[in-house]
User: Which sequence fits this backbone?
């Protein structure tokens, strides 16, 4: 994995976490670096099947082989453990 991919993952993770955890602000109450790192790892580990499940696809079938998918959280369980539960709209 190249450095550009890593930097993009870190940036996307930070943007995503600030959007979900609105009690954190980059200027006054920044996210813990550990949470951003864990979310970046979560994003990098996702494969195409997980991404499709996040878009609402529940099953895929190819040449008679079928895969059923449950929705996967967009936020790493490790991040939730670090930051705690969010009050409001967050749902897994």
Assistant:
């Amino acid at each position: 994995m190249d450095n550009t991919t890593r930097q993009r993952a870190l940036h996307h993770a930070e943007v995503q976490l600030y959007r979900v955890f609105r009690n954190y602000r980059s200027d006054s109450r920044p996210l813990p670096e550990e949470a951003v790192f864990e979310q970046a790892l979560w994003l990098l580990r996702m494969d195409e099947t997980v991404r499709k499940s996040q878009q609402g696809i529940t099953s895929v079938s190819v040449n008679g082989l079928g895969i059923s998918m449950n929705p996967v959280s967009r936020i790493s369980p490790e991040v939730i453990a670090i930051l705690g539960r969010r009050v409001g709209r967050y749902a897994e």
About this structure: The first strand starts at residue 59 and ends at 62. Strands lie at 59-62, 65-68.
